Amino acid sequence: MEVTVQYTGQLAGIAGISEERVSMGGDAVLRDLVEHLCEKHGPAYADLVVNGEGRIRPSTLVILDGEQAIGDSSQLPLENGQTVLLMTPIAGG
Length: 93
Description:
The protein is an alpha+beta fold. β3 and β4 form a beta hairpin. The longest helix is centred in the middle third of the chain and has 12 residues. The chain has a single domain, classed as Ubiquitin-like (UB roll). α2 packs antiparallel against α3. A five-stranded mixed sheet has the order 2-1-5-3-4. It is globular and about 35 Å long. The chain contains three helices and five strands, in the order βαβααβββ.
């Protein structure tokens, strides 16, 4: 299965891209994808997306095909062709 991952802000800066296609196993869940991305993009990326226990931070917005995932989204199954947008909090004023 292949999903498209989109990034904004700090995640795009760390990854060096705003979008990438990722191949995953057919029974992959969101946590599998996040673990793969953290390994690929390194500790600075992981620090923004997951907490010390390896769980997706509550402050990380996960948008699946245009719909925000609510609650613990880590076990949401991924679907072939799906678009996953990961966003970290935006600060400023």
